[in-house]
Amino acid sequence: MKLSKLAIAAAMAATLSAPIHAAEQFFPVLVYRTGAYAPNGSQWANGYVDYLKLVNAKGGINGVKIAYEECEFGYATDRGVECYERLKNKHGGATVFQPLSTGVTFALTDKAPIDKIPLITAGYGRSESQNGAVFTWNFPLLGTYWVAADVLVQHVAKKEGGFDKLKGKKIALVYHDSPYGKEPIALLEERAKMHGFQLMLLPVAHPGVEQKATWLQIRQQRPDYVFLWGWGVMNSTALKEAQATGYPREKMYGVWWAGAEPDVKDVGEGAKGYNALALQHGAEPNAKVVKDILTLVYDKGQGTGPREEVGNVLYMRGLISAMLGVEGVRRAQERFGKGKVMTGEQVRWGLENLDLDQKKLDALGFAGVMRPVRTSCLDHMGSSWVRIHTWNGTKWEFTSDWYQADEKVIRPMVMLASAKYAEEKKITPRTPEQCKE
Amino acid sequence: MIYRENGQFKTSYAADQQIFPIRQDRIAILALLIFAGVGVPLFADEYLFRAILIPFLILSLAALGVNLLVGYCGQITLGAGAFMAVGAYAAYNFLIRVDGMPMLIAVLLGGVVAALVGIVFGVPSLRVRGLYLAVATLAAQFFWDWAFLRIRWFTNYSSSGSVSVAELDFFGWRIETPVEKYLLCLGLLILFALVAKNLTRGAIGRQWMAIRDMDVAAEVIGIRPMYAKLSAFAVSSFYLGVAGALWGFVHLGSWEPAAFSIDRSFQLLFMVIIGGLGSIMGSFFGAAFIVVLPIFLNQFLPWLGGLVGVTISTAAVSHAEFMIFGALIIFFLIVEPHGLARLWSTGKEKLRLWPFPH
Amino acid sequence: MAFFIETLIGGLMAGMLYSLVALGFVLIFKASGVFNFAQGALVLFAALAMARFAEWLPAWFGIESLALANVLAFLITIAIMFVAALLIERLVLRYLVNQEGATLLMATLGIAYFLEGFGQTVFGSDIYKIDVGMPKDPVLILENVFEGGILINKEDFIAAVIAATLVTLLTLFFQKTATGRALRAVADDHQAAQSIGIPLNRIWVIVWCVAGVVALVAGIIWGSKLGVQFSLATVALRALPVVILGGLTSVPGAIIGGLIIGVGEKLSEVYLGPSIGGGIEIWFAYVLALVFLLFRPQGLFGEKIIDRV
């Protein structure tokens, strides 16, 4: 009896509030706040959700409020897929998915075209999905792992005094043994062939707490540089083992997923001098957008995570990922009608025609945080600028100029790999005319 | 009253030995099959298919396989996930390396390869027993996890080590929609469940059970332990391999070895123990329980929180899910160590007498 | 040569840590026939409690000294582990007496899930630090004998010494005290022990307590090395080959098994790994244990299995 009353009440509430909620843009949020990768995953998720809250606090996207719902998948691919299925049709249909897991990205790449929901994988995912002609629904915005690897090679070449000096050098790649960790290998092998350096591949099994043998090998072989392609606890373990075997941290370079506070915090001084790529942004506690979030979200007691983590590296990554999704919607509204709820298909167009120039970024509060992003049909990445930051024992500091990945190296690889994918999946790449639609 | 077999006379051995000797059971099962084959596709929505029904069917098949080995032959295995992986990757390789290979044949061949691998990894069972064997089967788990990550031939040299299947073709019938996938899995499951049931009723099943109850005694009465144990490993691995291939092809579409990690092995063992060791029916109960429970908790807890006006954070829900899951497992083991299948048969027993006390 | 010795030493030290976790398995199996898969969760739980209390106590009571905070946290955690052992016996094991091995194993997996969820609910799921002042930088010895010297990881060395001490203490406890004798009696034969008046339930609580303390020590060592977070629970999987190699019922087996596995997996990874692709140490440990099992099905020091029809 009670239950049925409740149901009636709920139904009434739903009908009453339906007109108000009808015009909401739904952002599903796949998160992992538990499990082996929780310390990293939850910061990203907090940034992502906080930005959505900020957009709502500022009045939505041209007046369209954002609805969001979290689904916890614990970095497990099958549960990620279940979350996707659960959320994709809720609240009038999902706008865009951002899984923050290379494994889930692979699984969803096949599903996105059928369900017509774009996937943003800012800084991860398949490298060849940069080619939007084949990967219509994937958006590896800001950078792929090939970009990351390429910039690392450029940086060490610069340190050595030119690409020709790399000849005979030895570079070790310590990587997470999963699709994520394997992505850069293809590019590094290509570069190794070009410049004649020797590439040592050292896989580390999930979750990455067992690296003694890896570092013994590094001690024996003494590579000139170590590239670290880890995630979660694997990063801090690597730094501790480096310390324990006396490998200089200055010679270690992490990918942008191995360059955040949880990776170095409990190593402290031991990680001093360790470098990592910055996916454009670093830790940005002074950015305008962060201050906005603190005043408009946290001061009202609506913050998602702890206040002191706002502005951390991974928090910013989540924030920027959310911003890219929101801007995709805004761009779509410019074409399909301002103040309307966009469908996945329309948002896809918006993401493909994204044009965030410096002025827009400044207005959004991202001045100094990132560079302009401009996507097109053939380039779903939009920007390949990267810089490097270094842990000074207490915080991350930028220590390099901006680098840009070498198109001449990456583009042919992207075309080759995406052509292979298209053939396997029997996809006909879109022609430039189709792209304009 | 309704459920009793009075007046149902058996006039032939065949009638006496049929799987469901009671007419009411036959009707119920038939109704269930019709419902599953016709009713469900009409009513279920896409989410139900993709997130619950298809995983349930595939994992039931896998649980059947584990149950044949653990429940009927008494060889505890913690490496079930590895055989699923072998099936999935073998099927994948057949599909891409042999021109015009039909999907179903590839899936079955995946099962065959898994069976062969199962025999190899079953060899230690001839010497090692019980919990020692359980841990030894983990060797298979970790070895294959590693092999599919590292040996690039298995993944057709894909740069990331993740593989995917383009389209599912069932002799000209293109399987695309969730309903079609569901029906494919359902068909295979019914077929294999029937085979499993008959295997366990036949000579080989009896040998397995003799080995399970006491292998030395079984040997004394003339059962060859090698043949019995290895055949159990082979059949079980075949089922697991087919389930693994379906899991990769039909459910995930693209996968990496992590899809068949040690967690999967534990999950399968949970299914057969919660469901009931040595019971075909139990495999289904167990699979349903383990598949549905986490999803249910995950959606139910926030709803419950909303009811009393508390927003439960995603992390807290997930932690609570762990706790409730663990507690329920312990609860079931204490209440009915022989699994849900035993509860089911107790229920049936009661129903037969109802409404009389004796 | 120097590198070989280094690998060997690294393996021995890693092995000592595996032994510590394996010991938890063996203790419980010996006394109650339960194959305790929750040992990894116990390690995580204990380490979480220790790390969090060491962090909370100074905040609550204004304790300045790190050492004092650590000692207090250690004591509180021991008390918590005691309560946990009591509850596990009262709520779970008591009802599962005489069940099959597989059922008991599943029950401990249930306990593991519960502890993982509970620990993270109470103590949080972030990455935490246990700072007991372990030195992090390496030392080089024998530099005049070998070129480049032999690198010794001080932290590992201290950990190995602690593990060895604990093992010795436990052996003494088992051999010399009345409780220890009672424990051994229970291990030999439940019924016989009960009939001469040894209370089974209390013995089980004691064993789980001891296993909890072992887990705490393991948790502190691993936690100070790796940071305390979810992955600690997976160290149990690394210790399993040790247990079956040494024999499920043998304390010395756990130690020698640990050393064999530790050395075996490091040597294999370093010398065999590069030629077949690396990352082999996990399965190599299991295969190594399996090979030993083929010759001695009850493990190196396990009790001989006698079949009677």
Structural class per helix/strand content of chain B?
Answer: mainly alpha
**Structural class from helices and strands of chain C?**
mainly alpha
Rg calculated over all Cα atoms of chain C:
20 Å
Total DSSP helices of chain C: 11
Low-confidence stretches of chain B: none
User: Globular, elongated, flat, extended or rod-shaped: what is the shape of chain C?
Assistant: globular
Question: Portion of residues in helices of chain B?
Answer: over 70%
Let me know the average pLDDT of chain C: 85
How many H/I helices of chain B? 14
Specify Rg of chain B, calculated over alpha carbons. Answer: 21 Å
Distance between the termini of chain C: 54 Å
Number of domains of chain C: 1
Number of strands of chain B: 4
Strand content of chain B: under 5%
Order of helices and strands of chain B: HHHHHHEEEHHHHEHHHH
SS strand fraction of chain C: under 5%
* Approximate shape of chain B: globular
Could you walk me through the main structural features you see in this protein, from its secondary elements to its overall organization?
- The complex is a heterotrimer of chains A (437), B (358) and C (309).
- By secondary structure, chain A is an alpha/beta fold.
- Chain A has 2 domains: 23-144 and 283-383 and 415-436, Response regulator (Rossmann fold, 3-Layer(aba) Sandwich); 145-282 and 388-407, Response regulator (Rossmann fold, 3-Layer(aba) Sandwich).
- Helix content of chain A is 46%, strand content 14%.
- Chain A contains 15 helices and 14 strands.
- Chain A has helices at residues 2-21, 38-57, 77-87, 102-115, 145-160, 179-195, 212-221, 233-245, 261-264, 288-298, 313-336, 344-352, 358-364, 407-425, 432-436, and strands at 24-31, 65-72, 119-120, 138-139, 170-176, 198-204, 225-229, 252-254, 275-278, 355-356, 373-374, 385-391, 396-398, 403-404.
- In chain A, α7 (212-221) packs across α8 and α11 (313-336) packs across α12 (344-352).
- The longest helix of chain A has 24 residues, at 313-336.
- Chain B contains 14 helices and 4 strands.
- In chain B, the strands form 2 sheets. In chain B, strands 1-4 form a two-stranded antiparallel ribbon.
- Chain B is globular, with a radius of gyration of 21 Å.
- The mean pLDDT of chain B is 88.
- Chain C has 309 residues and is mostly helical.
- Chain C is built from 11 helices and 2 strands.
- Chain C has helices at 2-32, 39-61, 66-91, 101-123, 154-176, 178-188, 190-195, 200-226, 235-246, 251-276, 281-295; strands at 139-141, 150-152.
- Chain C has a two-stranded antiparallel sheet with strand order 1-2.
- In chain C, a hairpin with an 8-residue loop joins β1 (139-141) and β2 (150-152).
- Chain C is globular and about 65 Å long.
- Classes of the chains: A alpha/beta (437), B mainly alpha (358), C mainly alpha (309).
- The interface between B and C is large, with 49 and 52 residues.
